[in-house]
Structures are given as C-alpha cells and as structure tokens.
Fold:
Amino acid sequence: MQDSASYFAGLDIGGTTVKSVLVDAAGDPVGEMVEVRSHVKDGWQATFAQLESALDQLVASADVDRSQIAGIGLDVPAPSSEGVIWAQANLGPGWVGTNIRDLLSERFGGLPVYMTNDGNAAALGEYAVRKKHFGSLLLVAPGTGLGGGFVLPGGRAWEGANGLALEVGHISVPHREEDGSLPQCSCGKLGCLEAWVSLVALRRRVGLELAKPENASHPLNDGSPVEEKAFRLREFAERDDPLAVSVFRQQGNILGYGLADLVRVFDPGLVVIGGGLAETGFRDRYLDWVLEGFRERAWPVYLNSPLDPEVVTTHFEWARGGDSAAALGVAFSARDRFS
Structure:
C-alpha cells in the first residue's frame, strides 16, 4: 500500500454508467478507470451505492487506503446550482430539488465534494489533458444532445451565477427546414443549435432525406428503425455515400456557424469538439465542414490576426480525453479546491 499522500476521486454520472478515476496531489492518474452501472432512473440513493462501489474499486486498483481520499469531484447530467438538481434531464424524478453534493459529502464521512454538470466536467477534462495549454478552452460535444463548457485560464470552469452557463445547444441559429419550418428542440423551443446538431437531429434529418423520391432506393431504406439508420449513417459517410455526406456536412456547417457566435462572445483561442464524431473515420472532413460554417459567420479577426495573417486566432481540435475526460476533469477540480 502507498504512503499517506492525498488522492482525489472523480465520479462522472452518466445515464447508464458511472466512470471514475483517481488522481494524486500532482494531478497524475493512479490506478485504472473504474466503470459501474449508474442506476440514475432508480433514484439518487441507488446511484450513491454505485458511487461507493466505484470508490472502493478505485482505491483497490491504486493500492491506496480510502482514508487517503481528500476530496471528490462529481458531475451530473442535469442542471444544478450549489449542489441542488434543478431539472430532471437524464435523471429520475426523485433527483430534482435534492442537494446531491451535500448528501454525498455526508455519505462519505464529510469529505468535501465539488459538483458540476457533465458539459463543464468534460471541458475541464480536456483542459487537464493539455498540459501545455494555459489559455481558455471552449468545448462543444455533439451527442444525444449538444453539450458544452468553457474553462478559464488556470483551469476553472465558467459556470455562471447559478451554475447554468454554457448551455451551448440552446442558442438560436438562423436556419430553417426546406418547408420554412423550425425544428423543435428537446428543451421545447424552436430552432436551437441542438435541434440541428445532435443524434436526435440526425434521426430527424435521416427520416426527411430518405422520404424524398430520389432516395427511395438508398440502402438505408430497408425498413429498419430510424435509430438504427442514424447509427449506420456514419459508416456510409466513411464510404463517401452522397446522402450521408450531405447530412453530416449540413450538421458540421451549422455547428461552425453557431460556434462563430460563441467565439465572438468568449474569444477562447481554442475550440475543442468532442462527442462520438471524434472517433469516426471522416472526422477530418467533418472538421473542414465545421470550419466552412465558422468562416461564413465569423469576423476575420477570429480567424487570423490583423497584424500578422500567419497568426491563427482561433484553433480547432478534436477531444483527446476519451471516455474518462469528465471524470478526470472533476478529479482535477477537486484537487485544485481541496488540496
């Protein structure tokens, strides 16, 4: 067993799994990432039992004693403020109005707990894995929805007065369907960026495109559920299928267009794109499509310096943190706050 040094746990609560990591006082990961089922639909008490199981597995993997844990970082897939869940989102109804942060601290014998949402956590993780990056960082992550986070120089997430900042998927973009309508977002509003750039949006777009007469003979018109068709669209894009390429190009262009306004507000210098697209074989082309949309909307100064055209003012990168990014992000934040 290792000495009496302090360690910090990062617990990332997802809709189906809890991913967890342990870092030491220097911020270096120790042991292995642990993944357990989350049970979020069964309530926070059931999930707390899973968090405790994950913590036990973490310390066993790292060969340290649980008493050496000096702080915990936690992220949840829902909006919250000061530890209190504000909306159900991807959780069960019993979470809303509950002070998860303080209850978890109590469960773990008074250990201090830092808590944020999953978008902020992923942004913090991407900041943590870039050891030589000291500026700010804006993350957008297309997934089932469209999450995001903004990290200030030094490694603190900008969370807003109520912990509700950086809902990047719910800014409005001036795009319409071919019939002039606006797509409805999961938030209930019309025309949000997430309604164009997300897995849910992809399913809608696939359905609309396959309904056109010119696509009647497309291989995806095989009677399978639209969810399966959307999932398979990536492999078609990797084979340069015109329908798949047009769908992803539209999403990339609209994402870039929305990013231009976010960059105009935050001037981050670095934009990181996360989500499952980071693992696709056509990600380089997707990034080109994002940049097409960005250039259409962005002021020239957000592309290159007016003093030296060779100096790029906004860099774009794919996420590097992988599955453990969010857990690593909150572990680092716990270390920064509680060491």
Q: What stands out?
A: The CA atoms of residues 124 and 207 lie 36 Å apart. Helices lie at 44-62, 100-107, 118-129, 199-210, 226-238, 242-266, 283-297, 325-338. Residues 7-128+323-338 form a domain with the Nucleotidyltransferase; domain 5 fold (CATH 3.30.420.40).
